[in-house]
Amino acid sequence: MRNRRHFIAQQSAAAAALAFPLVGGAQPKTIKVGILHPVTGALAFSGQQCREGALLAIEDINASGIATMGGAKLEVVLGDAQSTPQAGAAEVERMNEAGCSAIVGAYASAICLATTQAAAKYNLPHVVDVGVADQIVERGLKNTFRFGPGYKACAQVAVSNLHVLNTLAGKPAKSVMIIHEESLFGSGTAALLARELPGYGFEVKEVLKHANPTRDFNNIVLRMKAVNPDIVIPANYFNEYALLVRTMQQQKFQPKAIYSVLGGAASSYKFLKEFPDAANGIIDCNHWFNPKDKRAAALRKRVEAKGLYFTYEVFNTYTAVRLLADAIGRAKSADRGAITEALANSKFADHFMPYGTTRFENGQNTGAQPLMTQVIQGDIRVIVPREYREAEPIFPLRG
After folding, report:
1. What's the CATH number for 30-148+292-368?
2. Can you give the three-state secondary structure of 84-109, one letter per residue?
3. For residue 189, what are the contacts with CB-CB under 8 A and spacing of at least 6?
4. How far, in Å, CA of 93 to CA of 91, rounded?
5. Top-tier CATH class for 152-286+372-388
6. Helices (H) and strands (E) in the chain — how many of each?
7. In the chain, which segments carry CATH 3.40.50.2300?
8. Kind of pairing, strands 379-384 and 371-376?
9. Model confidence over 59-83: pLDDT tens digits?
10. Going by C-beta distance under 8 Å and a sequence separation of 6 or more, which residues neighbour residue 175?
11. How many CB atoms lie within 10 A of CB 329?
């Protein structure tokens, strides 16, 4: 009789454990998520910043877990694209083998083009954090979702606002020179600008391409001085942007405006701290946070406490990971198809970007928009649109 009672007690305890799997110290399962960026090579600074943003988001998500899945945690599988599309695609293969349910990455447009294509073979949902080339979301890939704006939207906003600023100032600027890096991001942005600017009355005097990386801009700036444009528009990554503007300063060439479109260093506290004089007055149309949202200020404080800079790579990737976690929570599953469907039906609004509610159309968040910033009195301030404005724009810098 005693053995029978003992057996029944054991069976009851087992049934209770099955009915309440989180009771008695049982742990919720994890969902593997690939975090893929170029953390070595020419793009290492930006890739490392993206990774930091992702890890901060995962830290916040895992503090309480995915509520609809019993507090399940995100398990990180880190990848290094080594600043090349080929290495990025190879890392997707590894993440697929590792059983990742989704991927967030991969910063550079050319790398994102390769990683999203590779992920599509396995129906592996891929959230693009930064890559701005519109080809990324124009191929009909059902697994690809870009949270931020593409370079077509950024170029249109930038050129339209340049026209307004120039008109209000009495149209002092008439000519433009575009300097861009050679990859998909720089070439695509430059082509869009060269096509749009003449329609607003600007003469595009020259479009110059440079290698990535480039460690000497003296000849390009000499050419700039010979052409003597009113406005210089750079479209390149951080290192090249910083060196280009510093070389302009060293050669004492000051146009009426340096007007960046997705400038790699223009909206960067790192560039501002290291080269304040070169950064002064630069206008940029770029990814930026809502400066009036306290959550952005709180995250910035955490980032800077680690000795890092609060750059767009950090907060773009942070919100991209939060978007993915929101979709996993609604899918209530680690299944790739379920997560893809949840992403496609997103109405994600719990973020500090100036976007409003997320809605995807062919993989692009239609509500995403860039902001216009300017370096004024030693700080980066939003100047356009008015609802986010922190300072009045200064245009032109030189009469």
Report:
1. 3.40.50.2300
2. CHHHHHHHHHHHHHCCCCEEEECCCH
3. 132, 151, 154, 155, 180, 235, 261, 262
4. 5
5. alpha beta
6. 13, 14
7. 30-148+292-368, 152-286+372-388
8. antiparallel
9. 999 999 999 999 999 999 999 999 9
10. 202, 203, 204, 205, 228, 229, 230, 231
11. 17
